[in-house]
Amino acid sequence: MKKIVLIMLNIIVLTSLIIGCDTLESTNSISQKDIVIQPKEPVISLEQTIGADMAQLDYASDDIIIFHGYFGLFIYNVKESKVVRSVDLKAINCSATQGDNYCEVSVSMDGSIIQLHDVSSKEMYIYSVIDNSLVKTSYKAMEKPFNLIPTIELSKKDTYIYSAESVKFDNGNLGYLVCEDFTLGTLKYIRNDKVYSIFSKQ
After folding, report:
1. What Rg, from alpha-carbon coordinates, does the chain have?
2. pLDDT of 31-83, one tens digit each?
3. Angle at alpha carbon of residue 160, lines to 157 and 162, rounded to 5°
4. Do 60 and 155 belong to one domain?
5. Is residue 24 domain-shared with residue 62, that is, in the same domain?
6. Separation of alpha carbons 152 and 31, rounded Å
7. Domain check: are 78 and 131 in the same one?
8. Cys bridge to 175: 92, 132, 145, 167, which one at CB 3.0-4.6 A?
9. Helix (H) or strand (E) holding 68
Protein backbone atom coordinates (compact mmCIF):
# COMPACT_ATOMS: atom_id res chain seq x y z
CA MET A 1 0.00 0.00 0.00
CA LYS A 2 2.83 2.38 0.94
CA LYS A 3 4.55 1.64 -2.38
CA ILE A 4 1.40 2.58 -4.28
CA VAL A 5 1.10 5.84 -2.35
CA LEU A 6 4.77 6.69 -3.03
CA ILE A 7 4.35 5.94 -6.72
CA MET A 8 1.28 8.16 -6.89
CA LEU A 9 3.10 10.99 -5.11
CA ASN A 10 6.04 10.71 -7.54
CA ILE A 11 3.67 10.89 -10.50
CA ILE A 12 1.99 14.01 -9.09
CA VAL A 13 5.35 15.72 -8.45
CA LEU A 14 6.67 14.89 -11.94
CA THR A 15 3.44 16.12 -13.54
CA SER A 16 3.67 19.41 -11.63
CA LEU A 17 7.28 19.89 -12.71
CA ILE A 18 6.45 19.24 -16.36
CA ILE A 19 3.50 21.64 -16.29
CA GLY A 20 5.64 24.24 -14.56
CA CYS A 21 8.36 23.98 -17.21
CA ASP A 22 5.81 24.24 -20.02
CA THR A 23 4.30 27.32 -18.43
CA LEU A 24 7.72 28.93 -18.04
CA GLU A 25 8.60 28.17 -21.63
CA SER A 26 5.29 29.61 -22.83
CA THR A 27 5.84 32.75 -20.78
CA ASN A 28 9.30 33.22 -22.28
CA SER A 29 8.00 32.81 -25.83
CA ILE A 30 5.29 35.39 -25.20
CA SER A 31 7.81 37.91 -23.86
CA GLN A 32 9.92 37.46 -27.00
CA LYS A 33 6.95 37.58 -29.33
CA ASP A 34 7.51 38.84 -32.88
CA ILE A 35 6.23 42.32 -33.72
CA VAL A 36 3.47 42.38 -36.34
CA ILE A 37 3.56 45.47 -38.55
CA GLN A 38 1.03 46.74 -41.07
CA PRO A 39 2.96 47.07 -44.36
CA LYS A 40 2.69 50.40 -46.15
CA GLU A 41 2.61 50.85 -49.91
CA PRO A 42 5.33 53.11 -51.35
CA VAL A 43 4.39 56.26 -53.24
CA ILE A 44 6.25 56.49 -56.56
CA SER A 45 6.11 58.45 -59.82
CA LEU A 46 7.01 57.40 -63.36
CA GLU A 47 9.55 60.24 -63.57
CA GLN A 48 11.28 59.12 -60.37
CA THR A 49 14.91 58.02 -60.74
CA ILE A 50 15.56 54.31 -60.40
CA GLY A 51 18.77 54.92 -58.46
CA ALA A 52 22.45 54.36 -59.15
CA ASP A 53 22.18 50.63 -58.40
CA MET A 54 19.25 49.99 -60.74
CA ALA A 55 16.36 47.81 -59.52
CA GLN A 56 17.37 44.43 -58.14
CA LEU A 57 15.58 41.30 -59.30
CA ASP A 58 14.99 38.95 -56.35
CA TYR A 59 12.75 36.20 -57.77
CA ALA A 60 11.00 35.13 -60.96
CA SER A 61 8.60 32.33 -61.90
CA ASP A 62 6.03 31.78 -64.64
CA ASP A 63 3.54 33.72 -62.52
CA ILE A 64 5.32 36.53 -60.65
CA ILE A 65 8.52 38.48 -60.31
CA ILE A 66 9.82 40.11 -57.13
CA PHE A 67 12.19 43.06 -57.23
CA HIS A 68 13.26 45.97 -55.06
CA GLY A 69 15.18 49.23 -54.91
CA TYR A 70 15.42 52.19 -52.57
CA PHE A 71 11.90 53.06 -53.86
CA GLY A 72 10.29 49.90 -52.42
CA LEU A 73 9.68 46.17 -52.77
CA PHE A 74 7.29 45.02 -55.50
CA ILE A 75 5.53 41.81 -56.56
CA TYR A 76 4.50 41.90 -60.22
CA ASN A 77 2.00 39.41 -61.63
CA VAL A 78 3.26 38.43 -65.07
CA LYS A 79 -0.04 36.91 -66.23
CA GLU A 80 -2.07 39.96 -65.17
CA SER A 81 0.66 42.42 -66.20
CA LYS A 82 0.38 44.49 -63.02
CA VAL A 83 1.92 45.09 -59.59
CA VAL A 84 -0.16 43.17 -57.04
CA ARG A 85 1.81 43.81 -53.82
CA SER A 86 4.29 46.41 -52.63
CA VAL A 87 6.07 47.41 -49.42
CA ASP A 88 7.50 50.80 -48.48
CA LEU A 89 11.05 49.92 -47.40
CA LYS A 90 11.79 53.41 -46.09
CA ALA A 91 9.04 52.93 -43.49
CA ILE A 92 10.96 50.01 -41.99
CA ASN A 93 14.43 51.51 -42.47
CA CYS A 94 15.39 48.89 -45.04
CA SER A 95 15.76 50.91 -48.24
CA ALA A 96 19.56 51.14 -48.49
CA THR A 97 21.00 49.35 -51.54
CA GLN A 98 24.64 49.75 -50.49
CA GLY A 99 26.80 50.73 -47.51
CA ASP A 100 26.79 49.65 -43.86
CA ASN A 101 22.98 49.57 -43.69
CA TYR A 102 22.54 47.62 -46.93
CA CYS A 103 19.22 45.77 -47.06
CA GLU A 104 19.77 42.10 -47.84
CA VAL A 105 16.74 40.54 -49.55
CA SER A 106 16.17 36.77 -49.61
CA VAL A 107 13.17 35.01 -51.17
CA SER A 108 11.97 31.47 -50.55
CA MET A 109 12.11 28.96 -53.40
CA ASP A 110 8.35 29.24 -54.02
CA GLY A 111 8.31 33.05 -53.81
CA SER A 112 5.88 33.17 -50.90
CA ILE A 113 8.22 34.49 -48.18
CA ILE A 114 10.60 37.46 -48.36
CA GLN A 115 13.23 38.28 -45.74
CA LEU A 116 14.46 41.86 -45.44
CA HIS A 117 17.60 42.32 -43.37
CA ASP A 118 19.56 45.47 -42.62
CA VAL A 119 23.01 43.86 -42.46
CA SER A 120 24.00 46.07 -39.51
CA SER A 121 21.02 44.86 -37.44
CA LYS A 122 20.35 41.72 -35.41
CA GLU A 123 16.72 41.85 -36.51
CA MET A 124 14.92 41.35 -39.80
CA TYR A 125 11.49 41.59 -41.37
CA ILE A 126 9.58 38.66 -42.82
CA TYR A 127 7.01 39.51 -45.47
CA SER A 128 4.35 37.02 -46.57
CA VAL A 129 3.32 37.59 -50.17
CA ILE A 130 0.14 35.53 -49.87
CA ASP A 131 -1.49 37.38 -46.95
CA ASN A 132 0.39 40.71 -47.22
CA SER A 133 1.72 40.48 -43.65
CA LEU A 134 4.95 41.85 -42.18
CA VAL A 135 6.68 40.63 -39.02
CA LYS A 136 9.76 41.97 -37.24
CA THR A 137 11.84 39.23 -35.63
CA SER A 138 15.40 38.16 -34.76
CA TYR A 139 17.64 37.63 -37.77
CA LYS A 140 18.19 34.12 -39.04
CA ALA A 141 19.55 33.39 -42.51
CA MET A 142 17.10 31.72 -44.88
CA GLU A 143 18.10 28.08 -45.31
CA LYS A 144 17.30 27.61 -48.99
CA PRO A 145 16.81 30.97 -50.72
CA PHE A 146 15.93 31.38 -54.37
CA ASN A 147 19.05 31.48 -56.54
CA LEU A 148 19.87 34.02 -59.23
CA ILE A 149 22.74 34.25 -61.71
CA PRO A 150 24.79 37.24 -62.93
CA THR A 151 23.21 38.89 -65.97
CA ILE A 152 25.12 37.62 -68.99
CA GLU A 153 27.19 40.42 -70.52
CA LEU A 154 26.83 39.15 -74.09
CA SER A 155 23.03 39.51 -73.99
CA LYS A 156 23.19 43.21 -73.14
CA LYS A 157 22.32 46.10 -75.44
CA ASP A 158 23.97 49.51 -75.03
CA THR A 159 20.60 51.27 -74.90
CA TYR A 160 19.52 49.45 -71.73
CA ILE A 161 20.55 49.53 -68.08
CA TYR A 162 20.35 45.96 -66.75
CA SER A 163 19.67 44.37 -63.38
CA ALA A 164 22.87 42.87 -61.98
CA GLU A 165 21.25 39.45 -61.65
CA SER A 166 18.89 37.33 -63.73
CA VAL A 167 16.83 34.18 -63.41
CA LYS A 168 17.54 31.16 -65.59
CA PHE A 169 14.46 28.98 -66.07
CA ASP A 170 14.46 25.22 -66.55
CA ASN A 171 13.80 25.60 -70.29
CA GLY A 172 16.83 27.87 -70.67
CA ASN A 173 14.91 31.17 -70.77
CA LEU A 174 16.45 34.17 -69.05
CA GLY A 175 14.45 36.70 -67.04
CA TYR A 176 15.89 40.10 -66.09
CA LEU A 177 15.06 43.78 -65.57
CA VAL A 178 16.01 46.62 -67.90
CA CYS A 179 15.63 50.38 -67.81
CA GLU A 180 16.13 52.91 -70.61
CA ASP A 181 16.67 56.28 -68.95
CA PHE A 182 17.04 55.69 -65.19
CA THR A 183 13.35 56.41 -64.51
CA LEU A 184 10.77 54.03 -63.04
CA GLY A 185 8.47 54.66 -65.99
CA THR A 186 10.86 52.83 -68.33
CA LEU A 187 11.48 49.82 -66.07
CA LYS A 188 10.72 46.56 -67.86
CA TYR A 189 10.95 42.83 -67.22
CA ILE A 190 12.19 40.74 -70.13
CA ARG A 191 11.90 37.00 -70.54
CA ASN A 192 13.25 35.91 -73.91
CA ASP A 193 11.20 37.84 -76.50
CA LYS A 194 8.46 38.94 -74.10
CA VAL A 195 8.62 42.45 -72.63
CA TYR A 196 6.56 43.61 -69.65
CA SER A 197 6.32 47.31 -68.72
CA ILE A 198 6.23 47.32 -64.92
CA PHE A 199 4.79 50.68 -63.98
CA SER A 200 3.41 52.00 -67.26
CA LYS A 201 1.22 50.53 -69.98
CA GLN A 202 2.91 50.58 -73.39
Report:
1. 24
2. 357 999 999 999 999 999 999 889 999 999 999 999 999 999 999 999 999 99
3. 95
4. yes
5. no
6. 48
7. yes
8. 167
9. strand 64-69
Tell me what the mean pLDDT of segment 5-34 comes to. 42
- Whether 183 and 47 have beta carbons less than 8 Å apart is answered as yes
> Using CA atoms, how far apart are residues 58 and 108, in angstroms rounded to an integer?
10
In-domain check, residue 77: yes
- Which has the closest alpha carbon to 117: 148, 92, 150? 92
Supply the pTM of this predicted model.
Answer: 0.82
Consecutive H or E run containing 21: helix 2-31
Environment class of 37 (CB within 10 Å of its CB; exposed 0-12, middle 13-18, buried 19+): middle
Domain count, the chain: 2
For 88-129, how does the pLDDT look when each residue is reduced to its tens digit (9 = 90+)? 999 999 999 999 999 999 999 999 999 999 999 999 999 999
